[in-house]
Structure to design on (468 residues):
């Protein structure tokens, strides 16, 4: 009995580790295709993110500092752990703290190299973490207030879709997703494909294999935020997929419509809007 | 047998990925901006080179292909060399326009070194004054074939720890020499 449950857990972990990057890579590929279509272009092939990742592995090895590689690997390890724990039905608070530790490891690995550009990027990445972490925490608190538990098993087994009781919290998570996906207007530390920010922002000093490691860790992080989004409609698979599709389209529209803002605007805007929405939703729960 | 096949398939995939994802670094060595405008036109929806997976990078450490426009002079040859050295191999250099090829009409000026190939090794020469976007795309595609042919992998000599130590020792010797 004990052994079979361990094997079961290991199989789930393996499936998550393999399938998550495939899914997020496809998500990014679709994103580039649709963005190109919006701009009247053909765009790169669907598998482009995978080509980019594999190419980075073939590049010459170059380490600016051993600590950079160490903390980048820790970042990857933390984001994989957080995602695996999510699908094992663990405590959502613990997952939140592990993923936050991973995000900080990324900042440390960028700071480990004495480069002014990398440092500016790292500080901006830290500001991004500061902007989205309270919002993500409030979303998790919202789950607790409705379901009475931080355990994912209980939250996922809740009989009604959480979207009905926490609609404003879904918008708050949208803010988190925009910051995490490095989309305009909140792409101040580094941008996804093509755009530039003070050389390359937080990624400036990463190259070749180390860059691939941080990218992969970033994919796992996105997978985690998208998985939390799916919790809002955990009662039906189609509902969860519908939520994912809606988030995908909205993110692309926001990205194409908005210009990049300053870090102060991002911090103030995400906190004021996010906190207001979250507080209204929580008050509504208490009253109703 | 199966393991061998898998390994060869993975190698094929890696070789394919190398060509399918070229990231560009564009450096203007002091051109009249004619070639720069044509180069950047390739990124617009009209030519859309992102359909080949090409992305314009601002960071030499991420770039695979270096596009150089304009004449090299004594002031910027160090910058050009520095950018080239920061790029990780395998890498390819494409010189664009008459000035980058030979110095163009500025060839005999006292401040001009000449073509890009006098400072760094050039793989592809794209002629024209200014070079047409179609010609630049052709040049980049030719550069990609050269990139595929370059057999340098992650196991280049520069990346081996033993060599890194050697380099460190050399630097130390130099510092000591200066002290004397």
């Amino acid at each position: 009995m004990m052994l079979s449950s361990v094997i079961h857990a290991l199989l789930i972990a393996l499936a998550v580790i393999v399938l998550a990057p495939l899914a997020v890579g496809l998500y990014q590929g679709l994103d580039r295709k649709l963005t190109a279509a919006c701009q009247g272009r053909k765009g790169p092939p669907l598998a482009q993110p995978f080509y980019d990742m594999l190419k980075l592995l073939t590049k010459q090895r170059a380490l600016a500092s051993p600590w950079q590689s160490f903390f980048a690997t820790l970042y990857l390890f933390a984001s994989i752990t957080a995602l695996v724990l999510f699908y094992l039905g663990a405590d959502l608070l613990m997952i939140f703290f592990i993923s936050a530790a991973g995000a900080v490891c990324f900042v440390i690995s960028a700071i480990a190299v004495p480069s002014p550009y990398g440092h500016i990027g790292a500080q901006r990445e830290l500001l991004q973490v500061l902007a989205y972490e309270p919002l993500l925490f409030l979303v998790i608190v919202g789950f607790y207030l409705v379901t009475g538990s931080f355990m994912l098993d209980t939250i996922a087994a809740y009989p009604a879709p959480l979207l009905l009781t926490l609609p404003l919290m879904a918008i708050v998570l949208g803010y988190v997703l925009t910051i995490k996906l490095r989309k305009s207007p909140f792409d101040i530390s580094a941008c996804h494909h093509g755009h530039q920010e003070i050389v390359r922002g937080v990624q400036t000093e990463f190259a070749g294999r180390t860059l691939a490691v941080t990218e992969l860790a970033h994919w796992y992080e996105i997978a985690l935020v998208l998985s939390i989004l799916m919790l809002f409609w955990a009662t039906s698979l189609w509902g969860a997929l519908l939520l994912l599709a809606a988030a995908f389209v909205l993110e692309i529209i926001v990205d194409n419509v908005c210009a990049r803002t300053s870090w102060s605007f991002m911090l103030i805007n995400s906190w004021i809007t996010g906190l207001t929405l979250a507080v209204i939703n929580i008050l509504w729960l208490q009253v109703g | 047998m199966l393991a061998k096949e898998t390994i060869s398939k993975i190698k094929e995939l890696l070789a394919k990925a190398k060509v399918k994802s070229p990231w560009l670094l564009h450096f203007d060595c002091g051109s009249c901006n004619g070639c720069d405008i044509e180069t950047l036109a390739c990124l617009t929806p009209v030519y859309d080179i992102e359909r080949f997976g090409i992305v314009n990078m601002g960071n030499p450490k991420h770039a695979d292909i270096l596009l150089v426009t304009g004449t090299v002079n004594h002031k910027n040859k160090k910058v050009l060399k520095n950018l080239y050295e920061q790029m990780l191999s395998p890498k390819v250099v494409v010189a664009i326009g008459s000035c980058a090829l030979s110095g163009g009409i500025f060839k005999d000026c006292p401040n001009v070194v000449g073509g890009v190939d006098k400072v760094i090794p050039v793989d592809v020469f794209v002629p024209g004054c200014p070079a047409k976007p179609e010609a630049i795309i052709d040049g980049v595609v030719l550069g990609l074939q050269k990139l595929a042919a370059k057999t340098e992998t992650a196991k280049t000599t520069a990346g081996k720890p033993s060599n890194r130590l050697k380099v460190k020792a050399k630097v130390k010797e130099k510092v000591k020499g200066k002290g004397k």
Observations:
- The CA atoms of residues 46 and 133 of chain B lie 10 Å apart.
